[in-house]
Amino acid sequence: MSERQQPWSDAEVRHGRLLVLSDNPISRAITTIATAAGREVVVVADDDGGPGLDPQPGDAVVLCDHDAPDAPAVLRHALGSGAAYVAMMASRRRAAGLVEELTAEGVDTSTLHVPAGLDLGGKGPGEIALSVVAEVVAESYGRPGGPMRG
Fold this sequence. Notes:
InterPro entries: MoCofactor_Util/Proc, XdhC_Rossmann_dom. The protein is α/β, with parallel strands linked by helices.
């Protein structure tokens, strides 16, 4: 009798936290999906600079509210923190303006993922959240997030 091979590993893998600002349907879906994937999620509901959003090396930071008045401050802080992944959900137009603003201030935006997530084509909060969590997972393993088939 042959031994069955499982497609997963039981080895414990340590990842940083997934820090999400602010509380909305997408951030709640991110919490559900990322928790199921074994990630610790911290949602900061306040739109006032992200108090308590203290990114550590290895953490992922996702700004789910591009209209938050503190978006530039949150991104500035996260990009300078050593977080492994920093992203913002935004239209390409809004993203371009914000990136331009941060770059003019001297902030290195080369690692900023905007718009956040992989291009899955999803429109609803759960589908958008899936694309974001998939990108976080891919980044944490140094993978591009494309199809596995050759």
